[in-house]
């Protein structure tokens, strides 16, 4: 019981201090925060290497850009470029993400697919760069 009480106190303190953590992280990381990770999906045998760039915003959670390569033993290497706007993304982040998607559509030689996930308008679309075609999913 003592453990549970300590756990609840810690979680409550974390929750109450979350706004200050956001402020400190914004000061520490500035306009962008990037991270890289390797993921192995053991159910399908897929190796993914993912690089994410979060574009911080004062008005919303900010949009993110993800570049990913995935390899399966029976597939060729696939490279994708994704830009994602959060559900409560602000108009400026939505505009920037759409602009980046359109620019990548014109100059996408390094990627098999270009994705835009716009959660504000519930739009999810993809460009197949080999076929030069766009699909709204
Ligand atoms: Zn924003």
Measured between the Cα atoms of the first and last residue, the distance is: 49 Å
Tally of DSSP β-strands: 7
Structural class: alpha+beta
Question: How many domains, as an integer?
Answer: 2
Ions, cofactors and other bound molecules: zinc ion
Helicity range = 25-40%
Mean residue pLDDT:
93
The order of strands across the largest sheet is: 1-2-3-4-5-6-7
Biggest sheet layout: 7 strands, mixed
Rg (CA only): 19 Å
Overall 3D geometry? globular
Please mark out the parts with pLDDT under 50 across 5 or more consecutive residues, or reply none.
Answer: none
Total helical elements: 3
- The H-and-E topology, N to C, reads as HHEEEEHEEE
Strand fraction equals: 35-45%
Could you explain how this protein is built, in words?
Helix content is 31%, strand content 39%. The protein is globular and about 60 Å long. 12% of the residues are buried. Strand 1 (32-41) and strand 2 (46-55) form a beta hairpin. By secondary structure, the protein is of the alpha+beta class. Bound molecules: zinc ion. Residues 57, 59-60, 62, 89-90, 92-93 line the site of zinc ion.
